[in-house]
C-alpha cells in the first residue's frame, strides 16, 4: 500500500491448525504433504516445498490463525495506522516462528485471528516432494457479507468474485491480496468455522501426480479432479487425519488489472464446471 492506495499486497505465508492430537496430525501431514517436523514451544512446525504449517493443541478442525506476509515494514505500519483510524483492535505479535519481530495480529468479526508480518528467510530450503505452495485459506461464516466487507474495507483485500443465490444474496466471496484470484474466501453457513486450506501446484500435470501420491498412501480423494468456476482452477480435495478439507489446486486465475468483479450463480456447475459440486448449506 502506498499513497492513497489502500489495497493490501501480501501472500498467505503460513497457517496454524488446532487439533486434540497435534502430534498425530503433524505426522499425517509429514507423510502426505512432505513436511519436515520440528517441535517448538509454539507447537509442531512443518516445513515443506512452499508450505509452512504449525500444529497446536486445540479443538478438532480449527484454524488457530492464518498469517499473511507483506513485502516490507512500511506496509505493516500503514496497515496498523489504518486499523487504528478505524478503531479496530490490533495486537503486536509477541512470538511467531515464521515471522520476523514487528508483525501485528487482528481478529475479524467472527474472531478468526489474522496475522501480518515479514517472513523469516529459510536458510534450509525444502525442495523435496511435489510442488504445492500454501496459497489460500477459506472459512465459513453465519455472516459472510459482514466478513467480506471487513476484509475489503478494513484490511484492504480486493474482491474478485461473488457467488449469489436466486434472491441476490451473496453466498460466497473470493478475495485477493495479489494478482492471484483469491488468497481468502468466505462461505455463508450455519456456523462460523474453518472450511479448508489450499496448495497451488501450478500445473495441471501435478494434479495427476498428487492424485497418484495420495493413492500410494491410501488417502482417498474426496472430491475432484474438477474445475472451479470462480478462479478457473483445477482441483482435488482430500481429508487429513482430523477431517480438515485440504485442496490441491493448479492454474488459478491471475486477475488482470481493472477486471470487474465477477458474479456467479449458486449452482453445482459454479463449484465444478466438470461435474459434481459440493454445495455449502
| CA-based shape | globular
Uncertain segments are none
What does the main sheet amount to? 9 strands, mixed
Radius of gyration: 18 Å
- Give the helix tally: 5
Derived from helix and strand composition plus strand pairing, the structural class reads: alpha/beta
Number of domains: 2
According to CATH, what is the class of the largest domain? Alpha Beta
Level of helix content?
10-25%
What would you note in describing this structure?
There is one protein chain. The strands form two sheets. The chain has a nine-stranded mixed β-sheet, with helices on one face. Strands 2-3-4-1-5-8-7-6 form an eight-stranded mixed β-sheet. It contains five helices and 17 strands. The chain has 281 residues and is of the alpha/beta class. It has two domains: 10-117, 2,3-Dihydroxybiphenyl 1,2-Dioxygenase, domain 1; 133-271, Roll (2,3-Dihydroxybiphenyl 1,2-Dioxygenase, domain 1). The radius of gyration is 18 Å and the shape is globular. β3 (43-48) and β4 form a beta hairpin. The N and C termini lie far apart (36 Å).
Amino acid at each position: 500500500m502506498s499513497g492513497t492506495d489502500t489495497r493490501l499486497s501480501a501472500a498467505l505465508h503460513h497457517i496454524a491448525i488446532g487439533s486434540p492430537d497435534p502430534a498425530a496430525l503433524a505426522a499425517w501431514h509429514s507423510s502426505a504433504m512432505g513436511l519436515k517436523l520440528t517441535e517448538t514451544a509454539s507447537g509442531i512446525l512443518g516445513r515443506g516445498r512452499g508450505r509452512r504449517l504449525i500444529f497446536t493443541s486445540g479443538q478438532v478442525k480449527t484454524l488457530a490463525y492464518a498469517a499473511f506476509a507483506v513485502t516490507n515494514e512500511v506496509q505493516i505500519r500503514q496497515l496498523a495506522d489504518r486499523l487504528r483510524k478505524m478503531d479496530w483492535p490490533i495486537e503486536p505479535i509477541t512470538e511467531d516462528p515464521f515471522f520476523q519481530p514487528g508483525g501485528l495480529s487482528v481478529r475479524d468479526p467472527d474472531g478468526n485471528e489474522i496475522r501480518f508480518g515479514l517472513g523469516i528467510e529459510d536458510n534450509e530450503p525444502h525442495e523435496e516432494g511435489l510442488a504445492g505452495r500454501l496459497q489460500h485459506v477459506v472459512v465459513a461464516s453465519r455472516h459472510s457479507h459482514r466478513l467480506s466487507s471487513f476484509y475489503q474495507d478494513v484490511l484492504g483485500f480486493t474482491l474478485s468474485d461473488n457467488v449469489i443465490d436466486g434472491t441476490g444474496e451473496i453466498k460466497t466471496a473470493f478475495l485477493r491480496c495479489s494478482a492471484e484470484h483469491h488468497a481468502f474466501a468466505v462461505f455463508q453457513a450455519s456456523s462460523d468455522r474453518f472450511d479448508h486450506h489450499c496448495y497451488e501446484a501450478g500445473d495441471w500435470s501435478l494434479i495427476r501426480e498428487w492424485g497418484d501420491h495420495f493413492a500410494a498412501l491410501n488417502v482417498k480423494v474426496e472430491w475432484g479432479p474438477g474445475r472451479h468456476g470462480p478462479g478457473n482452477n483445477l482441483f482435488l480435495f482430500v481429508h487429513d487425519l482430523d477431517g480438515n478439507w485440504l485442496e490441491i489446486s493448479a492454474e488459478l486465475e491471475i486477475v488482470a488489472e481493472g477486471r470487474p468483479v465477477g458474479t456467479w450463480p449458486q449452482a453445482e456447475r459454479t463449484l465444478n464446471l466438470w461435474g459434481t459440486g459440493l454445495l455449502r448449506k
